[in-house]
Design a protein that fits this description.
By secondary structure, this protein is an alpha/beta fold. It has helices spanning about 5-10, 50-65, 80-85, 95-105, 150-165, 175-185, 195-200, 230-245, 245-255, 270-275; strands at about 25-30, 35-40, 70-75, 90-95, 110-115, 120-125, 140-145, 170-175, 190-195, 210-215, 220-225, 260-265.
């Protein structure tokens, strides 16, 4: 049985409920309208305590702005997160762009907002004092990835190492970004795939050195399941844009990281279809 993260979340919030299926209707009444409770899934790039500290203030602000309730749903690994959105368990979610393509096809998820102030790209890192200088130096070596389907850290990176460099190496999947970096720092792996957001926030950042960067793409969207009404989606979009208009809101979103929140559309991610990453997606 997979370990639950509820105890970790409970240390920061007394009640975080996990459920799947249809939206649960609440008895709370705000402004004369019935409020609803929605599940929110977050791709686990960081360890659970950090994710909770980042997202609970944001969800609280959404509750204040919309009158609805938002329950954070824990996913122990990126693979667990993938299974959850493929099964439609999340009403709303924050996911990588390739996850969005899969989620759109399987459950009709639609993008609401994204970061307009930065781009997503994978980074390949080695130990700062390593003798490895180029990608070719990794021939026959061990490379850690957070999961097979992490977009920048794994899908883009593995495609480039294969198609561009023809590299032969030993891949290892270690669940989350911080574990991939730690394996390099400890000398268990020769390199690791990651992204700038997780690398720059990692406590071992000074012990790691970037040797390669992938193609750049629009970053992670916040998405809504097809069962969510257009009126609710408009409320959520307006609430996020409202957060981006205040100093306090921008400070909260910057920790995600979202530097400049902007509306998102399916067209933003059309470039992903041209990259033909399906060959590197691994069903789990």
């Amino acid at each position: 049985m997979k370990p639950s993260l509820r105890d970790t979340y409970a240390a920061l919030k007394s009640v975080i409920r996990r459920y799947s299926g249809a939206v649960i209707t609440s008895v709370v009444v705000c402004g004369g309208a019935s409020a609803e409770t929605f599940s929110v899934g977050i791709v686990p790039q960081f360890e659970p305590r950090k994710l909770t500290e980042i997202w609970l203030p944001i969800l609280s602000e959404l509750e204040e702005s919309t009158g609805h309730r938002f329950d954070l749903v824990g996913s122990p690994t990126i693979s667990d997160f993938e299974q959850s959105f493929i099964q439609g368990e999340f009403d709303f979610a924050y996911m990588n762009p390739y996850h969005f393509l899969v989620a759109s096809e399987t459950q009709g998820y639609t993008p609401i907002v994204r970061d307009g102030g930065r781009e997503l790209f994978g980074v390949l890192v080695v130990a700062a004092d390593s003798d490895i200088q180029t990608v070719k130096d990794l021939e026959g070596r061990k490379i850690a990835y957070p999961s097979p389907n992490a977009l920048g850290a794994s899908l883009l990176m593995r495609a480039d190492l294969d198609r561009t460099f023809g590299l032969t190496y030993e891949p290892h999947y270690v669940s989350i970004h911080s574990s991939a970096y730690l394996n390099v720092v400890l000398g268990q792996m020769d390199a690791a795939g990651g992204v700038m957001a997780t690398l720059n926030s990692n406590p071992d950042r000074e012990s790691l050195r970037i040797i390669y960067e992938t193609t750049r793409l629009p970053p992670h969207p916040i998405v809504a399941h097809d069962r969510i009404s257009p009126e609710i989606i408009e409320e959520i979009e307006a609430a996020f844009l409202g957060m981006g208009a205040t100093d306090a809101g921008r400070a909260m979103l910057a920790r995600v990281p979202i530097r400049q929140v902007v509306p998102a559309s399916e067209e933003d991610y059309e470039i992903l279809k041209e990259l033909n990453l399906a060959d590197y997606w691994i069903d789990q």
